[in-house]
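Progress against Task 2.4 (sequence-to-structure conversion) is shown through the following example record, which the project officer requested during the mid-term review.
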Amino acid sequence: MLLKIQKDHQRFRQIVKGRIREDLRKFITRGELIGKEGKHLISIPVRGIDIPNFRYGDNSDTGVGAGDGKPGDEVDANGEGIGPGGTEPGQHLLEVDITLDELADILGEELRLPRIKPKGRHSLTSQKDRYSGVRQAGPESLRHFKRTFRRALRRQIISGVYDPERPRIIFERADKVYRSWKTILQPQSNAVIIYMMDISGSMGDEQKELVRLEAFWIDAWLRRNYQGVESRYIVHDVRAAEVDRHTFFHLREDGGTKISSAFKCAQEMLKSHYASDEWNIYLFHFSDGDNSSESDNRDCCRILREDLLPHVNMFGYCQVASAYGSGNFINVLHDYLHDDERVITTRVNGKDDIYDSIKSFFAPGK
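Structure tokens generated for the chain above:
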């Protein structure tokens, strides 16, 4: 049965979640949330909530500190009175910690995202030992001390040999009990996310910030749906290479663009490490839509249709606005792959578009 303080805490958490839902579109665009990620917690500034507290005294509004005072009095020796204080209420901001799972659930509920049904890996299992009881035999390292002590004490009291004046507990073989375990088979639902990004000269810091924010929320939602998620990162100009997460979001190049190089790199990665019957595979490509040639556009569509799409849950293409890019690649995908439901495209011209982009990617629940 819940204590009253526990009920109050649960009600407070519901209020917090309600405030977050109201401002979710704004929270999604806040880059500082990513910097506060740690140990599965994110700090969120929430407006309009005061922490309950005790107030002492007679609630008098007169005086300054512990003494008498009036508007305009100096607060300390170095200050000067400047007249009455302001009369407008301030905006109350309370910073609360919520888990990534809670944040992802709020995102899914607000965007009305269906829960993803994993494929492939759910038919495989891993083994985990769980201590579920006690037994009369076992190694000393697993001896259950409390139960052994209670059995020995009960036996000595019943037999009349226990002396309260000289309390000594002597264990016999029949007193000893040991923890026992059983092997639990756990189904696995693992996923891999491969992020690909154009880092040519037309992709500046503003475009990379949009990609960083969108990738964070993609990660948050997919990790809520799978027991294990691996993230891999590929950058490309005319050549492609795998990099770590930090490099992915901070590397700046100046050169041309050959999108097919990233698709070929992803193809090799899947072939070497991720069998489609064991992994749920998600591909995301971020670019300003400026490719080197029409022939490479056709090559990209061929690689997608023949080599990548048959093995993935989804291919998401996010085109970010750039003053230097042609923005034509999204049209090429629409022309050549419009009939494949695994291909989902979105346009992100600014931070406000990230909310709708995520909804477009995961509304089908793939």
